[in-house]
Amino acid sequence: MRKQWLNSGLPVLAVAAFAASAALAQTVDTSRIEAAGQNDWLTYHGSYKSHHYSPLAQINASNVGNLGVAWMHIPGRSTRGLQSMPLVADGVLYYTGSYSRVFALNGATGEVLWSFFPELDEALISRQTHSPYNRGVALGEGKVFVGTMDGRLFGLDAKTGKVLWETRLIDSQKLTVGFTGAPLYAKGSVIIGAQGGEWPGRGPIFAVDASTGKKKWEFLTVAGTDEAMKTWGNESWRTGGGGGWMPGTYDSETNTILWGTANPAPLYDWSGADYKTQGARPGDNLYTSSVIGLDIDTGKLKFYHQELPHDAWDFDSAVGEFVMLERDGQKYVVHPNKGGFVFVYDRNLGVKNVWRLVENINFVKDIDPKTGALIGRRDFSAGKVTEPPLCPFIGGGVSWNSGSYNPKTGLYYKIGQEWCMTLDVQKTTPVTTPQVQLNIGADFKMAPPPGGEIYGHLDARDPITGAKKWEVRYPEPPLGSVLSTAGNLVFVPDSRGVLHAYDAETGAELWKHNNGTGHQGGIVSYSVGGKQYIAVTAGFGGMLADEYAPNFGGVYKSMPRDDGALVVFSLK
Amino acid sequence: MRLPFKTIPAGLGASLLWTAMAQAQSATPAPENATFEVEQVFAGTCGFCHSDGGRAPGKGPQLMNSPRDDDFIRSRIKHGKQGAMPAFEGAFTDAQIDQVIKYIRALKPRDG
After folding, report:
1. Is the pLDDT of residue A549 over 50?
2. What ipTM goes with this model?
3. Per the CB 3.0–4.6 Å rule, which of A29, A90, A412, B102 could disulfide with A25?
């Protein structure tokens, strides 16, 4: 057969196949994301329930040994590896690489349907620290939405990749920060939060009209209300940090966006115990290190819980998981905090329980499981902190990637990280205007837990009580997301580059495959033409991964930090 | 150990960075008679990657006893390294970068 090519460069057959698929496609909308059809992965957290779970069972505990690579895609220019969560709708897989490169691929073959490489302000990006990685897209109303490090949000045509609208939301020249997290689509809006934390700004979260790209509202996570303004002494709110750099979720029952917020700046305060009146940012510093509920239509704050009042340790709440589940007629939302505790809320973010995922925690003695109040805070004055070191390490007891809740087993599978740090807190002069770089406030170094070694672990826990059913340990903490499936499987992409499949009930390892480089991004499952696939991003490097070579050596010494691939598996 | 450098312009610590950037963009002469607290600047910005105040490797390399010469370090601070280190040209003046280099050259292991 003589090949015929269209202008797009796609073979006719591929286009025809895609067109057939698209003809069967329904628009991705709020109700479809809510329903979470088994063949798709329509939003960052799988569905608004944030389960990171696939009801597909073609690949299962009895045949996973036959899993093999179906196809791969190399995005190129993978500076700081690959960190995105692929999405899949109607047989098309969408994902991003560094520099907000977007790819639409045939989910069965990997064939490129279109790509979008935004023209970015490279001079600005060269000044950024937490850059140039990207953590994914959102889908809705026939569009693909992606944020950029230079402060813009794009709406692309899902069929062609053409830019339908482009909206500048942040003056990144002034604030340095932009967007690395995936947006969330819900109810005609695209929600995206800015980077923040250690950057002196006010950490905005935006809603944009999905049809037009017009900004609907903006909520400032630093002093976004009159009440919050009072919790920042000496006008420290002007440079308070905050942000909401990972996507949260949408609760249609309450018409609310649930979002986790980042830490205040400077990360480490020299206030000592008198943090309400002393230090770099006197007060509780609302709404940093908090979970917040915003009305999706107006952006007004409806309710919140500040997980760490006056966070002095950089153990923020920016983790985007809001795992929604029901038990005994009660509706719960489960949210892990970077400090290593897991908070259980009702749908209005009222505290129902708090449990420990991580063993090595000493920034507080405990957190009251009934109220969420911190017990025995460890507030530092200027000077060295070594005995004992602060636990966990700045990388957190959990990282920003997601765990998985499996409704069939009733278990929550989540990575815990056991590591600590010494630090030397500096008495800093207050920062009063936005600046071009970080505001950390201490020198620090990774250290092992007192009397132990650094390690990571996958736990299978009851999400409400925290009761542990089983655990798998790793010599270095895994940094990627976790996937569980109805096939009685849990997949963990680890830092050394090995993708593991475990029995979801017992934790027994059933299969593994070396992808050749470390993982620190997403993993999903989907189905095309009756065939189930597992897709995972591989590619190491970035704010936490860069610590692995000097601290752990071994395979990390030669592991590239500018490379990556999307690897897709199916049964042989 | 503290290293006050009275010869360096602008306000303290991080607020200096913003001032410095504005200066770089507008070519406005820097104010005199202020102090550049290089330890604060290091802990505010550089120490995020260069662990233990530059004494140990972290996300970035160890700086204490660096085999690199001053010109290399000056150029790296100014221009950064793609995907590894931000460019601080515009954030720090040349004189401030010199003070950071002095800080690096003065680094000693911590007591004990």
Report:
1. yes
2. 0.84
3. A90
